[in-house]
Amino acid sequence: MKISKERLLELYETMMKIRKFEERVSGLFAGGHIPGFLHLYVGQEAVAAGVCANLHRDDYITSTHRGHGHCIAKGADVKRMMAELFGKRTGYCKGKGGSMHVVDVNLGILGANGIVGAGMPIAVGAAFSAKAKGTGQVAVAFFGEGATGTGYFHESLNLAAVLKLPAIFVCESNQYAEFTPREKHLPVKTVAERSKAYGIEGYDLNGNNVVEIFEALSAIAAKVREGGGPVIVECFTHRWSGHYEGDPQKYRPAGEAEEWRKKDPILHAEQVLREQYDADITELAGIKDRVEREIDEAERFSMESPLPEGEETLQDVYAS
């Protein structure tokens, strides 16, 4: 489906919201306001935006330890997200989950996940339920190329293929599995080619081109939704930061990050909007200003929100 100017502006705003959210929480983490760990999504914004724009509200996603972008693209409230990172009672998990465990079942967000690859079997379960009930929903599992060496990956692909489930396995190849470059742990050139082992289709996409991702996923998601079975979609991109905030990144070759920054997915979208859709600077600046105000409000909300009380420790641990 050829993308419209209105849709591309929406994708641009989603990417900008992810970028500004991540940049803000990075600074707040450095200032001591956020406990625990952060794994930032900066540089990969086009993948989450382009994929999730083709999903319905009740479609499912499972995420990773680097999951803020997926949740924002699926429609999560940045105030509640940031409050969760702060460990505040107003967060999505009432301050008990933190960065790696954002969940909103009402939006189909079945959780970010601190265990590498563990979101894939959850997505398979969601896809199984959708097929069994005939709801027409799809389930998307986001993961990095490092997760493809786990049993989760192979078992999930095999079961989804055997049962022909409505599942889309989106591999964000950001060039590193924690600290290990992909050429050191992947015996194949691409993750997408592993689709052949399961008799399903695999696609390679430019993970920094939101237009390519959106248009490709429009067709892919429609086919999967109509009973075409699972697919693997590999998006080649790059994480601009280290594995975690504070990572010294001694494993990264000199100049590598700078070269990838030249392929900034947000700047690419701006270029397309201006050259092909006649968007002007004022229009784009208005989106940036609106996003900045939203992130400012999320920070204020998080700062002012209360911490959980001690007696809340065991609440929500067991089903009632």
Could you provide a short overview of the structure?
It is built from eleven helices and seven strands.
Can you tell me about this structure?
The chain is an alpha/beta fold and 320 residues long. It has one domain: 3-Layer(aba) Sandwich (Rossmann fold). 44% of the residues lie in helices and 10% in strands. The strands form 2 sheets. The chain has a 5-stranded parallel sheet with strand order 1-2-3-7-6, with helices on both faces. It has a two-stranded antiparallel sheet with strand order 4-5. Strand 2 (139-144), helix 6 (151-163) and strand 3 (167-173) form a beta-alpha-beta unit. It is globular.
> Biggest sheet, strands in spatial order?
1-2-3-7-6
Give the radius of gyration: 19 Å
The structure class reads alpha/beta
- From the structure provided, what is the oligomeric state, counting identical versus distinct chains? single chain
* Uncertain regions spanning at least 5 consecutive residues: none
GO biological process, one term: pyruvate decarboxylation to acetyl-CoA
InterPro entries: DH_E1 (IPR001017), PDH_E1_Alpha_Subunit (IPR050642), THDP-binding (IPR029061)
GO molecular function: pyruvate dehydrogenase (acetyl-transferring) activity
Cofactor: thiamine diphosphate
